[in-house]
Amino acid sequence: MTGRRSRQEHDLYRKIKWLIFFRALFALILLGAVFLAGMGPQAGLFLADESLFFLFVLAAGMLVFSLGYVLALPRVNRLVAFAYAQIAIDTFFVTLIIFVTGSFSSIFTFLYLAVIIYATMVVYRRGGMIVATLCALQYGIMVDLEYFNIIQPLGVAAGEAISGYSWQHVFFRLFITIAACYLVAFLSGFLSEQERSAKIELWAMEDQMKRVERLAAVGEMAAGLTHEIKNPLASLTGSIQMLRESIAYDPAHDKLMQIVLREADRLSTLVTEFLMFSRPQIGNIQDVRLDSAIEEVVSLFRKDPSFHNRIEIETALGAKHYIQIDPEHLRQTIWNLLNNAAEAIDGNGKITVSLSPAGKDYVKITVEDNGSGIAPDHMEQVFDPFFSTKTRGTGLGLSIVQRIIGLYGGLVDIQSEPGKGTMATLKFRRISHNRHTSGP
């Protein structure tokens, strides 16, 4: 959904800004620590210490990079790639800090874990595992090169060189460090994924609440108008039928009356749908087994002459799940979503209907098509009554779905990408399976 996508981009943008801020803060703290460590009887000569000098250079370099990130951020279009680039560069800075402070003997190895943690916060679990791999490779190569005397790290005091340790000790420490990197990436990534899922669900609920409030206001205003139209319309239709039967047959007149009756019938259908949208009523609530109910609607839809020759419908309904709803409302909702999906496909296409758990207490139904999709500037209007980009239909389908599902505390979500298709998701609270152990 476009609104959701912009929220995610805004959230990532905010996280990158905080990442730049804390990187610059760390660099300033490191600079201060270098000055304090170098202060002695002859203040100002601390740069003669090789390790402190390189630490000073690295801290200054981090500040310069941070400034560059600040200047580049407003102009960046691919935020995820920008975040990955920053974090990868950070791993190299950490490796250099560890190298100039003793490499294998350095006390700054924990900085790898800090980088991995904030990587999972910005680019989530997959990004955290990639960064963990990058850290493990750099640390492993650095320790191996030191062990075989190919490089000589700075800041190593007498007796602290890696040559003073057995290869078993070196391997054990290397293994523990690399294992810690992956363990932190996995655990922190798991928590960040949970946080992202909760945030996306919260955004969807906020969107639905706004839509429900807006549609409720429109519905109250429209309910009275709908009744005022329906009664005169019924009188008009009845009068035309009586007139048609009582007067002498005339082809021209009969054709005109057929047009009136056809258009009156179309208007009656529209008024009926609008009444359903304006004041939906909770019907006969029952415990409904979803896979059976969905399969029934899909079977009927496959036989629809408008679509059955060109639309392939696949189902992935899985295990049995039960919810409480009026079966007619559920059928109408699924039918509307299938109809919208089919109308979005030009020529031959495919619709996939799936049923799966959504957390511990919920179940979700998805209807996905490979049609033309919805333009980004139309996504915020798809639930508005009478809004439609199709040449046929009333534009009330999704509005009615929204109103019906809201009666039962459910959630409706639409995600679409132009040229690739649309996925509609219904989410319901499921009821205990133990109540239906003897069911079919």
How would you sum up this structure, described in words?
This protein folds into 3 domains: 2-208; 211-278; 286-436, 2-Layer Sandwich (Heat Shock Protein 90). Helices cover 61% and strands 11% of the residues. The chain is built from 9 helices and 7 strands. Helix 4 (110-147) crosses helix 5 (167-246), helix 5 crosses helix 9 (397-407) and helix 7 (290-302) crosses helix 8. The longest helix has 80 residues, at 167-246. The radius of gyration is 33 Å and the shape is elongated. It starts with a helix and ends in an 11-residue tail after the last strand. The relative contact order is 0.07. Residues 42-48 have low confidence and may be disordered.
Tags for this model:
7 strands, 440 residues, elongated, two-stranded antiparallel sheet, single chain, Heat Shock Protein 90, alpha+beta, five-stranded mixed beta sheet
In brief, what are we looking at here?
By secondary structure, the protein is α+β, with helices and mostly antiparallel strands. It has helices spanning 2-38, 50-72, 79-100, 110-147, 167-246, 251-278, 290-302, 327-343, 397-407; strands spanning 286-289, 311-316, 322-325, 349-358, 362-369, 411-417, 421-429.
